[in-house]
Write a structure and sequence with these properties.
single chain; about 300 residues; 8-stranded mixed beta barrel
């Protein structure tokens, strides 16, 4: 695993990072209803599943290493902290095994969340098979750095909504509008709070039954404004979610000590998703970039000394 400046110590005689110092922070977030997911894959690096059997075996390894497994033969980088699930951000290496991985993970750890972060081009080249044939609770669609960016004439949320309603193995799957949290966070697709709010309201009107909320890349930029203004996550919470979801509890900002964080709606997100029937799930998800915390040109105060996020 790669947690960059957040953790650089290894277990003795092992290549596994010893990040047990992060356990209290993870647990503190979870006590507030914030759900912590470990993201697999990414835009860079070499990774793949050898075959379907390997994928199913790896599901058990992930459960034992990060989730609720209790194998004494596996080192747990976050110690006694149990993460809430896994996010599949598969952007290379082929599509082999990920459907089998997600199905096996759900079988052996049914309370864990399984999410995916495909490109908006449909079907996604790396995750299309996993989405059609594997189990996912939520899909964080990257409507940026693509021809189908949100706010353009090629915005294709309708296509994804049709998939959710007719093809997904999970009849209660929720889709999130993925958007950059800052201009430097992506090559193309940044909208800002006002325009993103307009997109959200339009989708809510046409496909509100499958709309889960908004995903922002990345979490650091979502909850911190370099200019000193109101962070985009806070703007969306105040001007979009609280306005359009009247009667629901407010969405609280979330930060992550691992790989992605989900904010709280009228009931905790994972609680709702684990029930497989999230009736009022309208949230902001902040996905955190771990390989290089400063790679978007946004200076985060809690990155200055390589310190991890505080819960």
């Amino acid at each position: 695993i790669n947690l960059s400046k957040h953790c650089d110590k290894y277990f003795k005689g092992s290549q596994m990072l010893d990040c047990t110092t992060l356990a209290p922070q993870i647990q503190a977030c979870q006590e507030k209803g914030i759900k912590i997911l470990m993201s697999m894959g990414g835009a860079t690096g070499a990774y793949s599943m050898k075959d379907n059997t390997t994928a199913e075996t790896y599901a058990q390894t992930v459960v034992d290493t990060f989730l609720g497994g209790n194998s004494s033969e596996v080192e747990r980088p976050f110690g006694e902290a149990v993460l809430d699930g896994v996010d599949l951000d598969i952007e290379g290496g082929g599509d082999t095994g990920y459907a089998e991985f997600s199905n096996k993970l759900r079988e052996i750890s049914p309370d864990s969340l399984i999410t995916a972060a495909p490109q908006c081009a449909f079907p996604d080249a790396m995750l299309g098979n996993a989405l059609d044939n594997g189990w996912v609770d939520a899909v964080f669609i990257q409507f940026y750095n693509n021809f189908c960016n949100a706010g353009t004439e090629n915005f294709n949320f309708d296509t994804w909504a049709d998939w959710a309603k007719t093809t997904s193995k999970n009849p209660d799957v929720k889709l999130y509008i993925g958007s950059p949290a800052c201009e430097a966070c992506a090559s193309t697709g940044y909208l800002g709070a006002d325009k993103l709010g307009e997109v959200y309201n339009s989708v809510k009107g046409s496909n509100g039954d499958v709309l889960g909320g908004i995903m922002l890349w990345d979490a650091g930029a979502a909850y911190y404004s370099e200019s000193g203004g109101t962070p985009i996550a806070q703007q969306l919470k105040q001007d979009v979610l609280e306005t359009t979801n009247s009667g629901q509890a407010s969405v609280e900002p979330a930060e992550s000590a691992s790989a992605s964080a989900t904010a709280q709606s009228s009931e905790p997100v994972a609680s709702a998703l684990s029930k497989r029937a999230p009736e009022s799930l309208k949230t902001i998800v902040g996905r955190a970039a771990m390989p290089d915390p400063g790679n978007h040109g946004v200076k985060h105060p809690n990155y200055q000394n390589g310190d991890p996020y505080e819960g």
